[in-house]
Amino acid sequence: MKWGMITVLLVMLTLSAVNFITLSLFGNLTSTFTYPFMNAVRYISIAEFLQHLESVVMAIWVAGTFVKISVFYYAIVLGAAQWLGLSDYRPIVFPIGFLLVMMNIWSAENLQQLTHFISTSWTIYSFFIQLLIPLFLLVIAGIGKKKVKGDAGK
């Protein structure tokens, strides 16, 4: 719990700093860029030596995305195995991976469709997926723990 809170705090500070930098640099133009931080990094020039750091930022971005997808994929596979009552999660790794790839291809064919979805429907989906479902599962887990403690006392 401690390291989870520290991680959330560091991510929040990093995102706030990135947003502050891009907003300070571009002002009202920030909303017109697809990736404003990448445009901001292009302006970095330290003593005519450190230039063109876009590749470093892109490598960090890709590595972070890979780690995030890997953690979520592992959680989905492990959760599905527990939900299905399987003793081992390995038999469902490939089928769930295949379903995730197919959902990725099906969800948006290009950046314009993805942008339209995010600007119109994502708020409703994210409310349910990122708030209500985890909250519901937390309440169920809390009720289950209370019942186990209550049954142990009898």
Characterization of the model:
The chain is mostly helical and about 150 residues long. The chain is built from 6 helices and 2 strands; from the N terminus they run H-H-E-E-H-H-H-H. The chain has helices spanning about 1-25, 35-40, 55-85, 95-105, 110-120, 120-150, and strands at about 45, 50. Strands 1-2 form a two-stranded antiparallel sheet. The radius of gyration is 21 Å and the shape is elongated.
Q: What fraction, in percent, of the residue positions are helical? A: over 70%
Number of helices: 6
Measured on Cα atoms, how large is the radius of gyration? 21 Å
- Largest sheet, spatial ordering of strands: 1-2
Strand content: under 5%
Low-pLDDT ranges: none
Major beta sheet summary: 2 strands, antiparallel
Counted beta strands: 2
Terminal CA distance reads: 31 Å
Helix-strand category: mainly alpha
- Taken from the alpha-carbon principal axes, the silhouette is elongated
- What is the string of SSEs from the N terminus onward? HHEEHHHH
Instruction: Write down the overall mean pLDDT.
Output: 87
Oligomer: single chain
SSE order and pairing:
Blueprint: H1 2-26, H2 36-41, E1 45-46, E2 50-51, H3 54-83, H4 93-107, H5 111-120, H6 122-152
